[in-house]
Design goal:
The protein is an alpha/beta fold and 274 residues long. The protein has a single domain, classed as Rossmann fold (3-Layer(aba) Sandwich), CATH 3.40.50. It is built from 10 helices and 7 strands. Helix 4 (98-102) links the parallel strand 1 (87-91) and strand 2. The longest helix has 33 residues, at 50-82.
């Protein structure tokens, strides 16, 4: 039997287990959203309480995390159709497996996360080829912009499940800084309302991650454009559309998803830097 790997991560980095568990559970479904077989292999190699993670994710958490990933992947694929030789940067990469489902054989991929998370990633998912680069840095260490280099062939940045853990002034400074230095790049990330923050925080703490706390909440995504003249809003996307609601098995999950829809509790934001 292969010895399982113990998790030794910072409080925010530890939350990488939630989307990984959600993708693994989804992959076991007869009609998966993502069909991420890699996630099943990864979660089995980690010394974690899968039952506890699943209890606190619940059906709505699993569907939400998988639909978030699916919509981001659709945006990446659209970007790569236009910029086949472009660059993809995943901030807060953790154990994300988007590359394995979206790579076109030409793009350059960059995975950025804190050193502890990237060390775990390298142990489980070493860079598969020379087109994939791992960056062991905080997103607030802006030297990663130099690591990315020339973006004249296009740059698409994804930041799933990261920004709500920081204060609004930190998020504002971060987006304003990279917007002024990465003109022409696109970025996609999720936001959560102040009301939605309460429920998600309960799930995170229930999963044993008591030190991880959501701080930034916003309802109207257009307000992000007020932070910098270099930020342009392309669109917002609801995490749960009607097809997602129909997929839910539990009546209570359907009701919660409808409420999420109506109140815009969780959304995806797609920006362009100009």
């Amino acid at each position: 039997m292969v010895k399982k790997i113990k998790i030794q991560l910072g409080s925010v980095q530890e939350t990488l287990l939630l989307p990984l568990m959600a993708r693994a559970k989804d992959a076991q479904d007869r009609n998966p959203i993502l069909s991420d077989k890699e996630a099943i292999k990864l979660i089995e190699r980690l010394d974690v309480d899968q039952d506890k993670l699943l209890r606190n994710l619940t059906e709505i958490g699993i569907l939400g995390l998988c639909y978030r990933a699916s919509k981001i992947e659709e945006a990446i694929q659209t970007f790569l159709q236009k910029y086949p030789n472009g660059k993809i940067l995943d901030i807060g990469a953790g154990l994300d497996t988007t590359y394995y489902r979206c790579d076109n054989g030409e793009a350059l991929w960059y995975d950025l996360d804190m050193p502890d998370a990237m060390q775990l990633r390298e142990q489980l998912l070493p860079p598969p080829n020379k087109r994939v680069t791992y960056i062991h840095k905080s997103m607030f260490d802006y030297s990663w912009i130099d690591d990315i280099g020339d973006i004249s062939n296009g740059l698409f940045i994804t930041i799933p499940g990261v920004l709500p853990y920081f204060k609004e002034e930190e998020v504002s400074t971060f987006l304003s800084t990279i917007a002024s230095r990465l003109k022409g790049a696109e970025v996609m990330f999720d936001i959560i309302s102040q009301f939605g923050k309460f429920f998600v925080d309960m799930r995170i703490k229930g999963a044993g991650m008591k030190a991880a706390h959501l701080q930034w909440g916003i309802l109207e995504a257009n307000k992000i454009t007020y932070w910098s003249r270099h930020i342009e809003l392309i669109r917002t996307l609801k995490i749960f559309e009607n097809s997602a609601v129909q997929r839910a098995k539990s009546i209570s999950t359907k009701i919660m998803m409808r409420a999420n829809q109506a109140m815009d509790m969780t959304q995806l934001v797609h920006l362009r830097f100009r």
